[in-house]
Queue: 2 jobs
Job 1
Amino acid sequence: MTLQAARPAIEPLRTTQRLRCLSDEQLDRLQEATLQILEKTGVRFPSEKALAVLADHGVLVDRDTQIARFPRALVMESLKTVPRYFRLGARDPAYDLQLQQGLTYFTTDGCGVETIDFKTRERRPSCKDDVAKMARVADHLASISFVWPMVSAQDFGRTAPLHEMDAVWNNTVKHAQSETIMGAVPCRYALEMATVLAGSRDEVRRRPPFSLVVCTIAPLTQDKEGIEGAMVLAEAGVPVGFLAMPTMGTTAPAALPGALALADAEIISAAVLMQLVAPGAPVFHSEMHAWADPRSGTYISYPLDSRGRFAPVELAHHWGLPSLGGAYGTDSERPGTWQSAIDVALDAFWIALTGAEFVTGMGLVNTYTLLYPEALILDDDSYHRARYALLGMQVDDESLALDVTAAVGPGGHFLAQKHTRKHMRDVMVPSLTQSPDAGGHYRDPVEVARERVDWILENHTPEPLKSEQQAELKRILAAAGREID
Amino acid sequence: MPSPTPALQPIRPAFHLRLLDDHQQTMLRDGTLGILERVGVHCPSKRVRSIYRQHGAVVDDDTGIVRLPPPLVLEAMAHAPRHFTLGGRRLEFDAALDGSAMYVATDGCGTETIDFATRQRRPSCKDDVGRMARVADGLSSVGFYWPIVSAQDHARTAPLHELEASFSNTLKHVQTETVMDERMARYAVEMARVIAGDEAALRARPPLSSLVCTIAPLAQDEGGMESALVFAEAGLPVGFMSMANAGSTGPGTVAGTLVAADAEIVAALVLIQSAYPGAPVYHSMMPGVMHPRTGAYLGTAFDGDLLYPLGVELAHAWGVPSLAGCFGTDAVAPGWQAAAEAPASLLLCALCGAETGSGMGLLESCTLLYPEELILDTDMYHRVRILAQGIDIRPETLALDVIADVGPRGLFLRHKHTRSSLRQLRFSDLSNQPAAGGGYREVIEVAREKVGWILDNHQPEPLDDAQQRELRKILQAAEAESE
């Protein structure tokens, strides 16, 4: 047996500081706008199942247009059962995440479609093995508290989303969150797989080893498969979140508050449905808006004016929902560039200050589509920079070191002091940019990051699933393949 | 033909942070007072020691150590003004340090330049100072100008040539960090008087201020302190910056380094307030962290991000404005590292209420000028500025009628509201610039072109002929005296 590198404990962002970007009055105004949109304009639910539930509970449903209009009293009443915090279970209970105030958990980015190959460095379509390898890298990073399958398992056709979960569960002990399992049938298979991991349905409900993010379609439309799958999981007690991704200027008004309200209406309409299906079901709120480049219509995540990037977190909290914040995912075509750093440099820092409970996602470039394995390590560096800045400072007799300063005196040197030797390791945590080479110069951080990926893949293998669990997952995947493909 | 200088766009944060609680602030303040009283600072200038002595300090002329009793420190600091103005050549370029905004300067005193034309690395010169002042003048991000590199082609009068190059090429306030002896300071004040026009304007809207570095640990530079006294006497703002390095010239802890650095700065501020009560002064903390393997000063270690904004809070605890350390990357070329290191400290300093900051445009720990880095830092600056200014929610921006018009599954692109609002969204003029063959252009190349464009197209209003002649006369006199 080879000696394995120990997995470091997860290090969520911790802060006692809180920034409020929106005033109470602004939040009330946005909430009122959402209620107006839900009541007057409505949201399209292209699912008979969903429309039936909504109609049963007093939502005004137009069967021809499939548009549902929500009376405000119904919205407010149904959201009363939403839990403010819940637990995300992990394969290893030590890595369970209890959502709570003051802690922000990060995940990898997900659903990329291309990979820069680990060995050949050629750009190619992504596959299941990429998901597995990156889950293993993520398993070893203290910055990553839970794992999104980073790319799509395109070598597995329509069952790719379930294979992505299989790859993640086999390669990390951390909580897995999918953003690709869409539809009632795939969600039932995912639930079966989760039951294999957890042992029972009750245990899945108590410590769900996975959760799901479902994208809404801007403007004001739900995805049939997404919403029907979500209904299955909500009934089983698996956390489901709704992610709106409006683009200002094309699928949303070209003004931030308008885009916020529109996205919020999409999310809230889905959250209401979940509470009608299964009162008390854990749901979360997520919005990542983008901007249309006025010249080309291209989707831009990081313009100069990124205000509002973190406002949805406050909006979620105003509704009493936990928030999955959006961070990272540079528009730069490759990692290590000026743009890839500047786009994301404030993300972790700012999103923790707004109090997001959990956040996606590190490690993809080219606007969430392309995996360079080393990008995850570069983003990890930026994450820790924010983490330390948020930790605050210790001021006590030992850290003030007045006796040491007196001993050294004006014009002296602290290097020879015992106190310096004792504390230097804590005060100087080197960044990727501070790895000296043999000649004393600092090495290229991208090269250092690439080596770190290789090192983790060579040295870190998380505890495997039990062989009978592995066999069960394979059996479920085979059955899913027969039914779905 | 002069071209208009764009209006200043300081950072006006809508949110504020406080990193130190009252108890921590009290401990740090008591620590500083204790160091000043018991350990003291080394003061090599006889004149400075005699001022300290006159005001009640305990002075040891043999060792040069000056110890300041707490009542002396508190009494002197009580005179320091909390707010004042850094004057521009024109009124609209004044930077009012009134607590509502943060003005950021270029970096300064670099020693090497990547040549504008040949792109070769070479020692810096006066022409670089003038050109970069012109670039800075054309950027709304730059609130005031530090001569960005050293005019090494002008030997001992370099600091004054840097001022001439700066005043001649920008309408903004100029802050020097190289005038380090009494005689040079007198010439510099004369130059400022020429720019201001008269004594009253010089004091009300000083076009020049000075920054003097202390020497860690707990020591002062003789010429620097004597120069500071000259500035203060004339009513020009002076600030003191400590660059203590945790582990070598400061203790190996953040709090210890902060308190030792604070003591250095406060000792200098006390001198100025003792000699010229009410003189405008500011506090500047730019400590680094020593790399344990190389011994190098790192301005941007993980914990370093916290040192700068904590410095801002210490300044405010003493009731004086702050010059925050920000930017100042350790990267050796424009790229990922420079962009990863700077934004958080700028944002933190702004949210902690820093009145001023410096540091745009240099690399290699504030020593190397890549002209395009100022453009890249400007992009970063505006990202932080806009993020910090909060969100405007009004009926027009909520656009509920537009959302109702478009409805589920519709497209906003055709709506009149989209066309008018889209223009108001701000995109970077560096990233996302379409390339001829599709895709986007290389950001650093775009920045480089932008420097060229400003130099070809922007010429701020010149000094009038009489002012130009006066400045030249002052330079000649200084040169004659220094030979």
Job 2
Amino acid sequence: MNAHKKMIKILSLLTTIIIVLPILAACSTPTPETIIQTVEVEKVVEVEKTVEVEKEVIVTKEVEVQAEQTDIRIMMAIPINAEVVMEDLLDRFESQNPDINVILDVVPYPTILEILPLQLETGEGPDIAKVSNIAGLYEYYLDMRPYLSDPAYWEENMGLTMEHMNPDGGNRISGFYTDVTVTGAFINRTLFEQAGVPVPSDTSDKVTWEEWAEAAVKVRDATGVDFAMAIDRSGHRISTLTISEGAKIFDDDGNVVIDDEGMRRALQLMLDWHADNTMPLDVWAGGDSYREATNDFINGNLVFMQSGVWQVGPFTDKIGDAFDWEVVPNPCGVVTCTGMPGGSVMAAMKATKHPEEVARVMEFLAAEENYHEWAARALYIPQHNGIMAKGVEYATELPQALRAFKVFGEESTRLDPLSYRLQNHLYGYVIMNAIRDRLTQALVGELTLEEALARMQTDVDEALAAAK
Amino acid sequence: MSEISVQPQIRRQTQKTVRLLTIPLTGLYALLMNAIGLMMDFIQKRIGIRKMAYIFVLPNMLLFATFSILPILGNFYYAFTGGTKVLPENRYFAGAANFEFIMQCNNYLDPSSCRADLFWRGLYNTVSYVIFSVGGILLFALITAIVLNQPIKGRGFFRGVFFYPTLLSSVVVALLWKWILQREGLLNAGLTGLGLEPVNFLLSAEWSKFWVVFIGVWSNVGFYTLIILAGLQAIPATFYEAAKIDGASSWASFRYLTLPLLKPSLIVVFVLSFIRCVQVFDHVFVMTGGGPGTATQYIVQYIYNTGFSSDPPNLGVAAAASLILGLIILVLTLIQLRVTGSGEETDYA
Amino acid sequence: MPDRIIPFLFRTRGHKQLHLTDFLMYFYLTLGTILMFGPVVWGFVSSFKTQAELEKYPPSFLPYANKTIEIAGYDRPLSMYTVKLDDGSVAELAQVRRVGIEAQFADPTNPDELIKVHVDQTEPLRSLTLQWENYILPLQRFEFFTFFKNSIIVTILATLITLFVNSLAAFALSKYEFKGRDLIFLLTICTLMIPTTVTLVPNFLIITKLGWVNSLVGVIIPAVASPTSVFLLRQYMLTLPNELLEAARLDGASEWRIYWQIVIPLSAPAIAVLAIFSVNWRWNDFLWPLIVLTHTEKFTIPIGLHLFQGDYQIEWQYLLAMSVLALLPITLIFAFLQKYITTGIASTGVKM
């Protein structure tokens, strides 16, 4: 082999090494430096809102940090107004705890529902996640008790949370409620005024669903907006209607029985309302890619919307005082006037490789002043006996928001026990989703009400049988 | 300087720049290949020329075995087990229970008499989707190819025009069209402008099905047009001359000359589009989510829903359903190939 | 002339033939162009509109936005309208709020006095505005630069590896006789029939065991071995004369050298076609990256776009702007290489 060829071969080997090494580097798990960079970007954006001087300080601080950091990942699906608050809190935590680097992954909501369980089961997944299927994921929660400096604090203040996170009767301390929710109805009072229609809840404590429907239609016709009434396309929200109208869901032995008088009455109402255009078909008919009623309410195009307290934050942010929005008590059915409880918890995960650090992060976030700040600025309701005793000082002066919290607070004391039972049932979501999906089919005429009810039952039975 | 003499200069410049750019790349390529060659030559000295083929297929086979064959076997495992867990060790043996669940029907033609009504709805929806979209693709790809085969001005440009939508991501395509079709979208604006009533397309089962097919054809026709175009261009012009001399009308030469010679291309289009259309998912999911109701819920979405978005997910049924689907595709494709004479290229050189 | 023979599907009309069909052809082509380009153009133009503009119905083609004015005492700039007042006069006022049928206005010259008017008496003052914020905000706030970077890495690496692995296999399958060759070929064809959903979960498990979750490697590697690519390349390579290879062997070239110095350059058209498809597919790939990646800094563009379909609102203006950006590379490649792409596909199509 002549010298020329030899040289080419050597050069080739060197080139290969030079090319392959960076590729390998790109593929490996991210080094702390990479993460610092990402966080840095976030920080610089944040700080641009404040003083120039602070910007410089924070940037240099990042550079000083040692490479020996533990990464803790938090996965959440939250609206922007809440994201900003969480980022602030985490920044503060990091400055007090320079050996921990917290990364906030904001993901689409379906990812939490569909992909997170997959990851948790295979041992991948975040260290902490905000989950709404609280009972369903209980087997993945980390018991932080051995790592907490003050477990009694959690037991005293967040006993209810512990109850919900331990459906098997254990006493793990695994997290806290990011927001406790309750459903309720939003109305656009300004539209009522313009239409000259009196708001039914002004004169009566118990306004039925039918009365609201009638009033909403009158307002719509008088003001020329597009939509009178809407209920979120959700098994959870529709349960406020079904339970109020007398659906029992469970029989005396605890089996799920869907078809009864109350359920029929409620579903028939839905069918009627869609048939006479009281409710737009867009919201319920669309399958997975439905029209968001929220959007229309924010634009002042919807008179009455059944949703929940989690909208107060976004509404404060997006509507402000553009019109007078108000929360009215849950409408009444024949049997009762109830809403549905709910919420999400920030849960520590068993599969984490850094349980001590996770506990530190959680302790910080659940500390009374920090937890209060989270609730006050993100406009959420916490589950914390200490905070609730003093009341949350919400970081808004918007009268609509403050009044909304008052009404929701009252509503949460009037919830029917059946609502709690359904929500906290291990397979509550199976039931609610079955009702939601088959109702959609009935609304578009694919199934009759009879068939839909039968299918709801078989769906639930099959799912429960498969799960055993 | 006149325009005519400037052009060659510009062309030479661009050619130079292109060459300059490609030199480092080709150089890199040569270096890399030489480096690997060191190892390859070493191996070849040991095992000889013929056995090198095994080395060459090795990377492909390795990846293929790991990420295609193994998962299919895994799928079989899921299909015959039950439970809500993903990890194989957390599932229990269920025999043919999942298949029973799917196949149990009083009347196979009526989904509402079946235990897994959504599976059968999905299947029948898919059948009608496939018929219309494959038909639409064949028809429009043929017409477009014929038109593009003519000596029209800007032929290259138009070829690109029809091909462009195939490059777009189906997610983006679905979003764009959804936005055009919505209640206050562009199309309705146009209709009201013309004095017609606006239509809530995505709320109507028939319209949703139509639009889903339309977009499926819209975003794929360009690719198949090119295949048929290639087939058209391979037909020698002398054939047509001869036909004309014999007194054949244009329609006759099309029917008895063009179509038969296009058969291989048409078969390729038919088989490929069939396989793709049966597995339709992306653009439908984003645009209608299977709605209204389940009007546009096709079989792959059923599998996705069952295996992913259900709470709890039922991977056993999803796996069983996908095996049944695979079987159907296999059988139908074999039938197609048999019926159409397996499209061997006619040698007419 | 030979290629002036027009096969057409309508009845012959004597001497009017040429005219009518010419007209029909150009009509079809124009309609086709509008249909093919239209939606993207519409999306592009709309990506410059404000959110309010996007919700306006009927929509205007060009991006207009309300003229705004800053008035002391109000946090946000207010939109300007021409208002017909009750006394008959017309004034240009700033709208404070508007709900249902009633709107409240403030006179810029006299901001404390609020005037209430029925909406039918108002007309917005609009001007052509390009809302660049739609592009800037996502890039800043949502780390779209990171998404772009990841998409580029995935696309380029995946394409290079795909081309390499599949061309190597195609070479072996077309130019060598060895045991098991037909079996391998048959296997590859059969897997074409299985929908991807089937292999999704098992593949995720395998990735997990390999430790590739949330890494770009996990996104790139699994789909590299592509039966269609092997099939396509094999068909093409079959047409390469074996004498060429024999001659090279006699000259002392190793098999590997034959591969990369003879076979690959000769298969350039087919490889180019595959490269285009791979680039296109990887750039737009959605479902698999969605499952493998949940760490935000690893997201690719399609996942990023999906993020905008938030819980509460589809932020159409950002969605459109980022979609346009996502389409841009493909559109540019297409604009410049269009001729090669279309002729390349045509020529490989023949070899099938």
